[in-house]
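Students often ask why inverse folding is considered easier than folding. One informal answer: many sequences map to the same fold, so there is more than one right answer. In these notes we will look at a single instance of the problem. The structure comes first.
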């Protein structure tokens, strides 16, 4: 247990940020978080909530005073203006981490890889993304690599799912707010795909931070998570819902083409289609060397927690 360190979480009301905060709290850390409205209902009372906006450098700097770790798990709301806001927001976090000699943590994705690196992604594989969002992810990590006076940690993961997940593929496949009736699968049949259960991601970051002093300045790890094809995911959803005949149908990609000019979320999903056309797995051997094991919640338990949070099971 570490009772002497403080972390600032940007994005603590979201998926990755919320689970990292929860894992650090379990270990005795003092956790602060930046939120636009500190009086909003439902905020975890164990967290020191500071009112402010991650898009304002002064707010981030003030909230970060005296912290040991700064977790940058925040994105522009609704995927809007990614190209204009993402890199300036990271600049604010870098400046705050630098001012406090804190390690900056960035939950990473596979967006910064192109198909030439598939199917098994290692930390040092070339990053040649096909998409605008992928190019921004590459630029974010490049900023960390070039900030030689800031220690950073990147944990790259597959597609997120879990009880705190926000915009994610799981919610696009099973409509939240009603009993699960259909699984709309976006990928090709029998292709394994990497999924990251968010509580396991949070636990992994916390365990790595327990050895912060041993990490290299720009530390990168891959999180393997759950490797599933459509058959395995469908079976887990059927077991969780108790519906042995719940059907599997193809995700309506045609709808993303029609609605993309009007719905930002669908436009962003369409851009990521290439990730569902090839097998996709993250090589976690380096992480295993460091931790001895990767935190891993059983699949049925993870799927049940996710569907309960969606309101899809009683």
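Output (designed amino acids):
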């Amino acid at each position: 247990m570490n009772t002497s360190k403080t972390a600032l979480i940007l994005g603590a009301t979201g998926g990755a940020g919320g689970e990292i905060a929860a894992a650090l709290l379990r270990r005795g850390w003092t956790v602060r978080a930046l939120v636009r409205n500190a009086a909003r209902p439902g905020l975890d009372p164990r967290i020191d909530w500071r009112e402010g906006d991650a898009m304002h450098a002064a707010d981030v700097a003030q909230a970060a005073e005296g912290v040991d770790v700064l977790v940058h798990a925040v994105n522009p709301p609704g995927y809007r203006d990614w190209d204009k806001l993402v890199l300036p927001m990271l600049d604010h976090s870098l400046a705050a981490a630098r001012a406090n000699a804190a390690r900056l943590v960035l939950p990473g994705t596979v967006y910064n890889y192109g198909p030439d690196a598939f199917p098994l992604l290692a930390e040092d594989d070339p990053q040649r993304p096909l998409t605008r969002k992928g190019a921004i992810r590459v630029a974010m990590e490049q900023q960390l690599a070039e900030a030689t006076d800031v220690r950073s940690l990147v944990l790259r993961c597959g597609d997120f799912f879990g009880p705190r997940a926000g915009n994610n593929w799981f919610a696009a496949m099973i409509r939240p707010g009603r009993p699960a009736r259909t699984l709309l699968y976006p990928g090709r049949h029998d292709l394994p795909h990497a999924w990251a259960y968010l509580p396991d991601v949070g636990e992994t970051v916390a365990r790595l931070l327990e050895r912060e002093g041993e990490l290299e300045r720009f530390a990168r790890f891959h999180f393997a998570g759950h490797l599933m094809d459509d058959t395995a995911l469908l079976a887990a959803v059927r077991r969780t819902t108790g519906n042995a005949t719940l059907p599997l149908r193809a995700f309506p990609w045609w709808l993303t083409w029609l609605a993309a000019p009007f719905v930002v979320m669908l436009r962003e999903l369409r851009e990521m289609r290439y990730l569902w056309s090839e097998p996709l797995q993250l090589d976690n051997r380096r992480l295993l060397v460091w931790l001895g094991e990767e935190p891993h919640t059983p699949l049925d338990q993870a799927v049940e927690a996710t569907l309960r949070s969606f309101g899809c099971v009683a």
